[in-house]
Each structure stands twice: as structure tokens, then as C-alpha cells.
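Bug #77: duplicate submission created two jobs. Keeping one. Sequence:
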Amino acid sequence: MNNEELLRRSLAAVWHPCTQMKQHEQAQSTPLPLVPVVRGEGLWLYDADGRRYLDAISSWWVNLFGHCNPRINAALADQLGKLEHVILAGFTHEPVVQLSERLSALTGNTLGHCFYASDGASATEIALKMSFHYWQNRGRPQKREFVALAGGYHGETVGALAVTDVAIFRDAYAPLIRAAHVVPSPDARQAEAGESAADVARRAAAALEAFFEANHERIAALIVEPLVQGAAGMAMHDPEYLRLARTLCDRYEVHLICDEIAVGCGRSGTFFAHEQAGIRPDFLCLSKGISGGYLPLSTVLTTDQVYAAFYDDATARGFLHSHSYTGNALACRAALATLDIFDADDVLARNRARGDKLEALLAPLAAHDKVRHFRRRGMILAFDVDADAGFGRRFYREALARELLLRPMGNTVYFMPPYILGDDDATFLAAGAAAALEAALK
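Kept job's structure:
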């Protein structure tokens, strides 16, 4: 199919996610154009007419090592000749065992039990259900409520929306939701005169402590996005918040859930974001980059203590959650290939250099008189733009015109490129982003 036919048929048959479809109807004249893609290679996506786009947001934060990565391709081709999938209830297979062992080892074996699903929202729901059920099994049924951060995002299924504080996703479904308690975010952009990011973190932790002191008997768990709250506009906070939250959760007997769906797998500069605070959560949610952007996969890792609360003769005390593709062999093999690349290529060290290079190239843009709060955490860079509400759509379109896939959230522009970004690619990206910013502001 050529571009025109692919666009026409997609608009007629496909309901696209997080999209007002009416904005796509006029195709290229709309402020939100639909982009046809026929192949990917490395950093680049290509349409049917041969036009290319540098995927600077890793296709919704999932693609770690480029499109059609030959090493992941080879692992999947090998797995296809062995086993594509088998029911994980009553059966097991080598890829899911190896992946579970390797992920546990990355936590120092403190999180030794992996429960699998297909997507981030499902991982959130699993962690919430596990925490709730844990307290039931431990004879403390009053601990059944949850706490989330202001601006937090944890997925768009009904259970995940209960701990999501982003109005555009949550409000339409409010009657279906049993909403969590919301406490202040440690977002460093909220710093008052003379305050550091760590001061903001301590201020938010003090509010959390006051809430726990009054309500801990009813609280099952606190859920946080460690270091970076993605949908809140890449709101970054100091690791001090995680250290204090861990201490408070221990003191008040509340589980800590770290949602690392977006910030795990090296995005924050360490393999897990919570490592930068020197803590471990009770539940760790992973998805997105875990399979290298190839196949739907998520997992929740938890402790021996949590696992033991479900280990019983009574079936009803077990964790009775499942879906048909739990622990899919192909997805697990893609994840193993992804971990192999981390090991073979010293990815975390190389990412520090990549991030430094891109940050330096973006320095002139950071100094722009309309740019606010330029910030970076590992391989995530972001800034806010002082402009009208239509800026984000204009910037997106101007970036596409310069062969860049950059998809702002409101007036927040962010960069989350794959971990294969070279110096020339970074130069191209920074120059195109600066040009797109000027065009969008006009």
C-alpha cells in the first residue's frame, strides 16, 4: 500500500489510542497528522514513500535498541522454531524461568518472585491486587485503600485509573473508579525561592508522613513512579523522596509499589530507578522496554514475605489472576535478548555519555527565553515551553516536517531516544528540535 491508501484504510478501520479520531480525518491538513509506517531500521521509521522519521520517543518509550535490531530478531527467530507459547498455569518453559531468575538477580535477589502479564496497566493492577490480598490473608482486611502521588499515572484500565491522577484519563470514568488518596508530588519544579529539589522531596514526604499517621490502619500500599512522573510532564524528583517514603512505609506497615514501567530498564541512568535511592520496593512493576519494544510483556516482582502470605493449602488464598498469554515464550525470549545487549554493550555507561552529549547539544535551546525547567534524568530530557495551549500540536507537526518523532505532552517537550543514539544523530535531533520550537512559537 502507498501512503494515501494506508491512511485512507486506517482511518476507516482502526480506532487509534489516546486520539480524538476527528482530528485525523483531514489527513495531512489536520494539526495532528496520521503517519503511515511501513518499516523501521535502527533509530528510523519509514513511510511508504520513503520519508523517514527519527524515533526520538522510542515509540511510546518502549524501543531500547532500535527497530529491527538484528540480535533481538535472531533470538526471536530461534525461539519461533522451538515454542511460541504455552499455558503458564500448570506448565513452564525455559525463557520464563531464565527471565525470572535474571530479573531477580538484578534486584540482588530481594525481589525473588515474578508474576507476568502483557502491559503496564495490568502490572499496576496485579501489584494493587497482590497488596490488597496480602493484607486479607494476613488477617488485616481493613488495609484496603491506596495512596498515589498528585499527577501520577499508572495506566488506563479501571483499576489502574484508581491510582492515576491525570484528569483527561480519569474523569470520564470517575463513576467506575474507587479512587485512591492523593498526596503531594515531590516534583522539583515546585521549588520555592531558595529550595533545592531535595527540599521539595522532604516537604512532600512530610505531607506523606502526616497522612500515614492519621490513616495508616486503612492503607494497603503507596504507589510511585520513581524519579520521573511521565504523564505529569516528565516531572522529576530527588531520590530523597524515595528514601523517606521507604522509611515511612516500613514504619506504618504500608507496601511500597515502584511503578518502573516507563523509568526502568536503564531509562533513569541505572537499570532500576529506585536503585538511585538505595532502596528496594515491596512490588516492582516493569513493562515497556523490558522486551526491547518488540512484544507485549509486563511483570511484577515481589518479596519472599509477600509470596509466603499466599502459600497455603487453600486455593482461595492463592493469587488467582491470569490472562491467556501470561509469560509468553516469545516475549520472554525478546526480554532475554534485551538483557543480553545490556550485558554485552555496557549500555548504562554508554548511556551516560549519550545523555551528556545530547544535553550539551540542547544547551542553546535550554537557554531560550520561552523554555522553562530544562531537566534530565539519565536518558530522559525535558523542558516546558511558555506558550499557548495549541503549542504541543504545532511542535509535533513541525518536528515531523523535520524528520523527527517528538510528541509533546501539553507544553512539555521531552526526549527519550533509543540507546543507540550516535553523535551525528544527536546533532540532527537537537538542531531539528530547535528549529521546530521556533516554528511552533511563530
